[in-house]
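Sequence design from tokenized structure. All designs in this work follow the same two-part layout: the structure record, then the generated sequence. An example of the structure record is given first.
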């Protein structure tokens, strides 16, 4: 098991290194005159040149990249070129907000998808058709339309929730839950559509196996057969899809955060990319890559726990 984890960690380190390298050089190629953007069009050429030297932009790109890597390894991601705020502070102050939405949406997706997928696989008939219709509807309706519909109905018309804003859980757990409910639902609906179909197919395939017929012939209850044996064997593919959904939700959160005016990393990611704020963008890329590696490692560990053959093949 230890060797399995070490291999996954090594692959994760390589992935983070590759993503960071590619992102840095792409940002450098598309950066333009960043010093001019910072100082404005009225700045003199001498002032712009001085700012360029101050930021180290007059050095060769490999030297700049080596400097960034050297500082990043020691935990120093620099400061934003436009706001002066440290990159670590800018990300950590907002990352918890985005993760609360994404993790909440992932949990809702997992629970609802398991219920709908198992019902569709075991009941069949009109239940199966209804679940498939819901799945297709979840794929077809864009997330921003769902978010706008939720705001209009539950916040503006019914006044059950606040239409915008975010409350930290440390300030008030109840207000925090209220502030993330609609955004989490908006994020989760698309994920439910994908994961439900995967669970439905996997459970149906598992319940057709010979060992399931043997368990039923021994008098085990249908509930135990489905949830303890069938669902466990069907959980592997579902976990992989759920991990992909989690990564996708990190990107989808940008639109939802904008609609609900939630101060997550989506807003600063868009602004930093448009401005060419390389330190802040690189910090966001690094943080996102590390989150992806951690999520994949957790999924791999769960896969190995559910199916020991995975550890042997990996």
């Amino acid at each position: 098991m230890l060797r399995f984890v070490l291999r996954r960690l090594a692959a994760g380190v390589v992935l983070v290194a590759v993503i960071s390298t590619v992102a840095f050089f792409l940002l450098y190629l598309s950066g333009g005159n960043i010093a001019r953007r910072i100082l404005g069009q009225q700045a003199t050429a001498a002032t712009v040149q001085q700012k360029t030297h101050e930021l180290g932009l007059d050095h060769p790109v490999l030297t700049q990249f080596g400097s960034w890597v050297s500082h990043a390894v020691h935990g120093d991601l620099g400061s934003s070129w436009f706001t002066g705020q440290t990159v670590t502070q800018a990300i950590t102050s907002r990352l918890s907000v985005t993760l609360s939405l994404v993790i909440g949406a992932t949990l809702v997706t997992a629970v609802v998808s398991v219920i709908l997928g198992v019902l569709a696989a075991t009941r069949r008939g009109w239940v199966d058709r209804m679940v498939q219709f819901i799945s297709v509807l979840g794929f077809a309706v864009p997330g921003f339309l769902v978010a706008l519909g939720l705001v209009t109905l539950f916040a503006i018309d019914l006044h059950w929730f606040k239409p915008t804003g975010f409350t930290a859980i440390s300030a008030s757990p109840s207000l925090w839950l209220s502030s993330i409910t609609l955004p989490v639902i908006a994020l989760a609906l698309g994920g439910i559509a994908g994961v439900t179909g995967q669970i439905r197919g996997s459970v149906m395939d598992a319940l057709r196996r010979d060992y399931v017929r043997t368990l039923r012939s021994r008098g085990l209850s249908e509930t135990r057969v489905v949830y303890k044996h069938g669902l466990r064997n069907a959980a592997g593919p579902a976990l992989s899809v759920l991990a992909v959904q989690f990564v996708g939700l990190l990107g989808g959160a940008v639109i939802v955060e904008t609609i609900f005016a939630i101060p997550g990393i989506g807003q600063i990611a868009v602004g930093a990319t448009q401005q060419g704020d390389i330190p802040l963008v690189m910090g966001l890329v690094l943080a996102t890559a590390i989150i992806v590696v951690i999520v994949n490692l957790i999924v791999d560990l769960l896969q190995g726990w559910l199916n020991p053959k995975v550890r042997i093949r990996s």
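Residues 222-259 form the longest helix (38 residues). We note this feature because it recurs in several other targets discussed in the main text.
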